[in-house]
C-alpha cells in the first residue's frame, strides 16, 4: 500500500511539473505593440531656409532667402515632449542639405534671367563642384536654418491634432551616428513614449520598422496625413561605419519618408532609429540600417530626455514563467519529499511493524538498551515540540 501511494505521489508531482509552460521570451501581442507604437509616432515636416553665395563675373553675391523642405518620421521618447528622429532629417551642416538650397537658388536665378533647364543643370553641377557657400536665413550663421513642425495622423491615437512647431535641440550627421533630438515645449495632451532597449539586438531577432513612407502618401488623401506603415523583418547583422559608429542592419523595408521612425522588437522596445538604405548595382535587394540603440540612449539622455522603462519583464524579454515555473517545480518537489517522509514514518509505526517487537535486554542490539530496561517508545510523528 505504501509503495503504491508513493508511486501515485511521484506521478502526481511529475505531472504538476510537466504542465508548467516552458520558460522563454515573452511574445507580446502584435496588435497591442503596433497600437502603442502608433501612439508615439509623429509626422515631421521640415522647412530649410538659407542664402547661397553665387560667383557672378562681377563678383560674388548672396542670393535672397531660398527654401527647401522634406518629410520624415519621429517618435516620442519622453512624455514631456522629447522626440527622436534621424539626424539627417534636420542636420543642416551636411552637403546634401546645402545642395538642395544651391539648386533652389539656381532655379530662381534661371527664372530671373530667362534661362532654360539645360543651363540650370550645368550651373548646378558647377555649384556642387565648387561648393558654393551657404549660410542661414537672413545671413544669420554659417548653416541653413531649419524649422520643424509635427502632427499625428487622425484616428483614436491622435493627440497632436494641429501642426506644432518643435525645437531642434541637437542633431548628428550620418557619419557621427545619425541621431537627433527635438522638443515639443507644450504638449497638447498626454503623450505616449517608447522605451529604448538597453540590450544590443541579436541577428535573427524579429523586428518591425515603422514610419510614413512617401510612396504611401502619394496614394492617400493629400488633405490628411497617411497612417503609418509597419514593415516586419529580422536583425541581419551588426556593422560599423568608417568612423567606427555602430549600426544595425535589418531586413525590414525602410522606405523614403520612414527615416527617423523607430524599429522595434517584439516587445515594442526601440532597437534603433530608421537611418538609411542602400541598393547594390549588382543586386536588386535593399539593405536597411538603423542607428545603434545603446548610442541612442546616451544621446537622448545627454540632451535632457528622461527615458521610460519597459513594462515589467519586457526589457529583458522574459515572461513570468521564467521565475514562476521553477518556483512551482521546487514547491512540488518539497511537497513530494514531505509526503514520502510522512508515509515512511507512518509505515514504521503501523500495527504490522509493532506485532513483532524487538527483544529487549543486554546484547539485543537496540541502541540505548540496558540490562532489563526497554527502550523508550518512538513517536511516529517525530520529536515532540520543544525537544
From TrEMBL:
Gly residues: compositionally biased ranges: 362-371
Family annotation (SUPFAM superfamilies): Trypsin-like serine proteases
Specify whether Signal is a keyword of the entry.
Answer: yes
Pro residues composition bias: residue spans: 377-387
Secretion signal, residue range per the UniProt entry: 1-28
Task: List the transmembrane segments.
Answer: 320-343
Q: Where is this region: Disordered?
A: 135-154, 350-387
Q: Which UniProt keywords apply?
A: Membrane, Signal, Transmembrane, Transmembrane helix
Task: Specify one Pfam family.
Answer: Trypsin_2
The source's domain of life comes to Bacteria
**Entry protein name:** Trypsin
Amino acid at each position: 500500500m505504501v509503495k503504491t501511494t508513493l508511486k501515485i505521489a511521484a506521478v502526481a508531482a511529475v505531472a504538476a511539473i510537466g504542465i508548467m509552460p516552458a520558460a522563454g521570451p515573452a511574445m507580446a501581442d502584435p496588435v497591442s505593440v503596433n497600437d502603442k507604437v502608433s501612439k508615439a509616432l509623429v509626422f515631421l515636416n521640415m522647412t530649410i531656409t538659407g542664402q547661397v553665395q553665387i560667383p557672378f563675373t562681377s563678383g560674388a553675391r548672396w542670393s535672397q532667402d531660398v527654401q527647401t523642405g522634406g518629410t520624415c518620421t519621429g517618435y516620442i521618447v519622453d512624455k514631456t515632449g522629447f522626440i527622436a528622429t534621424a539626424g539627417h532629417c534636420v542636420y543642416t551642416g551636411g552637403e546634401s542639405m546645402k545642395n538642395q538650397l544651391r539648386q533652389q537658388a539656381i532655379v530662381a536665378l534661371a527664372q530671373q534671367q530667362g534661362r532654360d533647364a539645360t543651363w540650370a543643370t550645368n550651373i548646378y553641377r558647377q555649384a556642387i563642384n565648387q561648393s558654393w557657400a551657404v549660410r542661414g536665413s537672413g545671413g544669420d550663421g554659417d548653416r541653413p536654418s531649419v524649422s520643424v513642425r509635427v502632427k499625428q495622423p487622425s484616428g483614436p491615437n491622435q493627440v497632436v491634432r494641429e501642426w506644432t512647431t518643435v525645437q531642434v535641440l541637437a542633431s548628428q550627421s550620418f557619419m557621427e551616428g545619425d541621431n537627433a533630438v527635438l522638443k515639443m515645449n507644450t504638449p497638447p495632451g498626454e503623450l505616449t513614449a517608447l522605451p529604448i532597449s538597453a540590450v544590443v539586438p541579436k541577428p535573427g531577432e524579429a523586428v518591425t520598422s515603422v514610419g510614413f513612407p512617401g510612396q504611401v502618401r502619394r496614394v492617400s488623401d493629400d488633405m490628411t496625413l497617411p497612417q503609418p506603415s509597419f514593415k516586419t523583418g529580422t536583425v541581419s547583422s551588426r556593422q560599423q561605419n568608417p568612423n567606427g559608429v555602430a549600426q544595425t542592419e535589418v531586413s525590414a523595408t525602410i522606405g523614403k519618408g520612414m527615416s527617423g521612425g523607430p524599429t522595434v522588437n517584439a516587445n515594442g522596445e526601440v532597437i534603433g532609429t530608421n537611418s538609411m538604405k542602400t541598393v547594390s548595382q549588382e543586386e536588386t535587394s535593399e539593405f536597411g540600417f538603423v542607428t545603434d540603440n545603446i548610442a541612442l540612449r546616451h544621446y537622448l539622455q545627454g540632451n535632457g530626455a528622461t527615458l521610460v522603462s519597459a513594462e515589467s519583464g519586457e526589457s529583458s524579454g522574459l515572461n513570468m514563467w521564467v521565475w514562476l515555473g521553477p518556483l512551482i517545480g521546487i514547491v512540488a518537489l518539497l511537497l513530494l519529499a514531505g509526503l514520502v517522509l510522512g508515509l515512511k514514518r507512518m509505515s514504521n509505526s503501523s500495527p504490522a511493524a509493532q506485532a513483532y517487537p524487538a527483544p529487549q535486554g543486554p546484547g539485543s542490539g537496540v541502541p540505548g538498551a540496558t540490562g532489563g530496561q526497554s527502550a523508550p517508545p518512538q513517536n511516529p510523528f517525530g520529536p515532540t515540540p520543544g525537544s
